[in-house]
Design a protein that fits this description.
Spore Coat Polysaccharide Biosynthesis Protein SpsA, Chain A, four-stranded mixed β-sheet
Length: 710
Amino acid sequence: MKKITLSIIIVEYKSGSHLHALLQAIPTHDDWEVIVIDNSYENKGYGGGCNSGAEKARGRYLLFLNPDVLPKKHAIEDMFEYLEHHPKVGIVGPKFINEDGKTELSSTEHPSFWKAFFSLSFFNSLVPGLSLSSEYWIKAWNRESTKEVSVISGATMMVRKDDFMKAGAFDPQFFLYWEEFDLCKRMENRGKSTVFLASSIFHHPQRISMKQADFDVSDVFRKSRFVYFKKHLGLVQGIILELWFALTEQWRILFLIGLAFYLRTMMPTHIPLIGDVGRDYLYALNVVRGQEIPLLGIPSSIPRFSQGPLNIWFDSISFILGGFTVFSPPLFAAVLTTMGAGALYCLLERTVGKQASFFGSLFFAVSVTAVMQSRMPFYLFAVPVFLVVYLWCLSVVKNSSRRSVFFVVFTYFFLLQWELATLSLILLLPLSFFLEKISIKKHWIGIVGATIMGLLPQIVFDITHRCSHLCGLVGWVGYRIVAVSGFDGRHGLSGEAIARIVTKSFDQFLSFVGQENGSTLYAVGVLVFLSFFYAFRHQQTLKKHSLYVYAIFGSMVLSLSIFIHGFPSEAYFPPYLVFIVIFLAHTLFWMPKRAQRIAIFFLIFFYAKQVYFLQKDIASSSSILDYLHASQWIVRDSKNEPIHLVSFDNGSSFNTYLDHIKFLVQTKGGKIEDSGKKYVVSFERETILPLLQYEKREFGMVRVVKKSVY
């Protein structure tokens, strides 16, 4: 049998055609052997796969290769010759050329505590000339010459088998990443050096295997990094470094949620309050007091049908946790919507990376509509949050998982409970079932169960009201779809109707960015439409970007539902906020780097402008203290007698016009009755109030008149 001198070990993991290209590029030698360890079915990790290959190897030398590298001519021979003639060298690695034709920084010094602290955190980018960082990355060296270093990349490294085994091989604690740092350190402890060989050149275009991974590679990276520092620096220093890295690596999401929460809670006395919100607050008080649990909410934008009761239930929970105060629901709404911003960032980060997801998600954080709806939590404020949850479930649904199918159906109907205008988004369910090849027949029990649980309040209502809600809604939807044809002469889509819908829709989109930012809206629109262009160019990878596909389809069916309804109600537009963020993030991800920098510069300017105008608008709005002082005075003046509130304002024709004042009066201990002491309340300066024999008080924007002689 021919004696083997070199064993080439390749750890394969879902690399596809790239493995074939590598095998074709490896020169043929009679005394070489190639060993492929397939980790696709039983993943032992990179180090574990290399160890398995080393055990099978018959050569005196071992060459470990990633499947996504390609050697240039004589690259492997040069490494072999170098080790043959340098017995004190334990490991040799090549120069890597990336897909841009640039030399990778594939060799470093050992990471001491302070070198790691600065070189592996944002300080490396913030202060690129920092001496510790320069030393770690060996920046003074252009990598055009051979040099003894501390660490070389594990993507390609050659060792003597005897040295490798005596050093203990790869430590199985490192599933992936940092195993080469550990091996180089142990080789050095045995008196063997590591060398970067400039004459040996490999192409390293991309990390194919990692892009195909079905596990969180960033989480694996962090775990391996901690193992290394704990092993070589000690537990305490390892913990300190990991806490520091967690802070610096997650600064984007920390900044995002910090900004989102600040905008939603700044100037807490300047929160909007209207009668319809007060009506829900009054219902919520009744829930907390055990008087009733509503099964429906306010009338929806769809005629004759009501929203689900979740907003009232949310207010009830806010009062239980935060007390009977007008500040409780906005505070918990701020927490909920801030969590939504963070969840959207995390959802996008999985496919488009930190930078694109960060600058995309900031649109959600600073949106005028999102901020103001959160400051006055009323049905629509929660729609983007639970749409994110729905999209998350859509993106992870699997054919073999009954739990994932159940939750994706349940989260849709939970979303529908907040706003009936999201009805058309139910079509995302059959789309996901088609894409993931989910059998409805196989999962019908879970689908039915999730539907019942998601619609339970309305189902209970319909059982006691002759199916007047859900059944009627299904009938209305069917009628409106047919009526678009104009067969009954009332709901057809004329040119005038289409123009009206488009104009009103533009106004709604304008509210996302503020009423004075029309030109900015056009610029954002250009970025959104650029994503369609890039998506067309990246059709082959869209399967990995299912979130983008759902956003496209969701936007289409939602737009269609607006035309079917015939009027672009405000209720239809909160989902677009999430879809725009998804489009922006993918645009940045697909853009060439130079264009990306320009787009990011524009977005930073836009977001800064948004924050400035939001602060200005909130500061100039009326104070909730006016309502609180007026209500407090009414309660104190009534002297425990029942209170009857009336108004002569233009809006007083609506039954809920004074419900927010009634709520505040009740939280101050007052009793509301139609036969009680009469107080006239006005919020409009043009309203003429009675003067003779009456006492009038003014509390900022609120005027109260009571009869002074009995």
